[in-house]
Design a protein that fits this description.
The chain is an alpha/beta fold. The protein is about 60% helix and about 15% strand. Helix 1 runs parallel beside helix 8. The longest helix is centred in the middle third of the chain and has 32 residues. It comes from Weissella cibaria.
Length: about 250
């Protein structure tokens, strides 16, 4: 069997394609990313905003039994965050805008201004992880808003101040949260399929080469024939298993 160079080359091609399939599906097996780098910017530098930074950075994981862990970085300003994202340093960032504390105090007045936060998502670093980061940061801002509204209401009750219908409405969603996506990957939605197709075609090429190599063996010993019957089904079975596993993972991802 191994005296036929074409046969040996075809086996090598098939095995290499199988290894490429394994490498291609490795990212889909890590369902819970660890130590996701996320930045937070406090542009207000008030007691209220600093308390929020302390509260949020104490949250280092999100999820159930297999949580995603977060690695926070406090950054001086938004410009520094954007530069870092250009270098693919962060998956996302949360910016507490200037005037946050002052705007919070205005919520119970006749001329309220909602305090602002901005969620920045770096989609190009990893689109799947970025979507998870966006959900996590949005959930965090909602919790901060609820806690802030309860705090304002408690202070008003302590001072025996009436809560107008307008003030109550403002406190339902006290924080104005905007989301900005940078380095978008919308024009690469089919990238996974584009990379998968040539790999699978390469595996098919290995199959064809094996078939022709088998036909080219005109004189084989019993030992060589036995090796053919043992090795080739193993290789082809491995390739078919990898194909099925890859298709399942792609279905789960998309």
């Amino acid at each position: 069997m191994f005296k036929n160079k074409f046969h040996v080359i075809s086996l090598i091609v098939a095995l290499v394609m199988g290894l490429l399939l394994i490498v291609a599906q490795i990212p889909s097996t890590h369902t819970a990313p660890k130590d996701l780098p996320i930045a937070i910017v406090d542009a207000d530098q008030s007691d209220a905003s600093q308390a929020i930074v302390k509260q949020l950075t104490s949250v280092t994981s999100t999820g159930g039994k297999n949580p995603t862990t977060i690695k926070w970085s406090v950054v001086k300003n938004k410009t520094a965050v954007m530069r870092a994202m250009d270098k693919q340093k962060y998956y996302g960032a949360l910016v507490i805008k200037a005037g946050f504390a002052q705007d919070t105090m205005s919520l119970t007045t006749t001329n309220p201004t909602h305090p602002e936060m901005q969620v920045i998502i770096n989609q190009a670093k990893n689109a799947t992880a970025a979507a998870g980061v966006q959900n996590a940061l949005t959930m965090m801002t909602n919790k901060v808003g609820s806690a802030m509204a309860n705090q304002v209401l408690r202070k008003m009750q302590a001072l025996n101040l009436p809560v107008s219908a307008e003030a109550a409405q403002n406190l339902l969603q006290p924080i104005a949260v905007t989301t900005k996506i940078v380095h978008t990957t919308t024009n690469k939605a089919t990238a996974s399929a584009a990379f998968f197709q040539p790999i699978w075609m390469g595996a098919l090429l290995g199959t064809v080469m094996l078939t022709y190599a088998q036909k080219g063996l005109s004189h084989v010993t019993k030992k060589q024939a036995w090796l053919n019957k043992v090795i080739e089904p193993v290789v082809m079975g491995l390739l078919h298993w990898l194909r099925d596993s890859q298709q399942l993972n792609l279905h789960m991802l998309f």
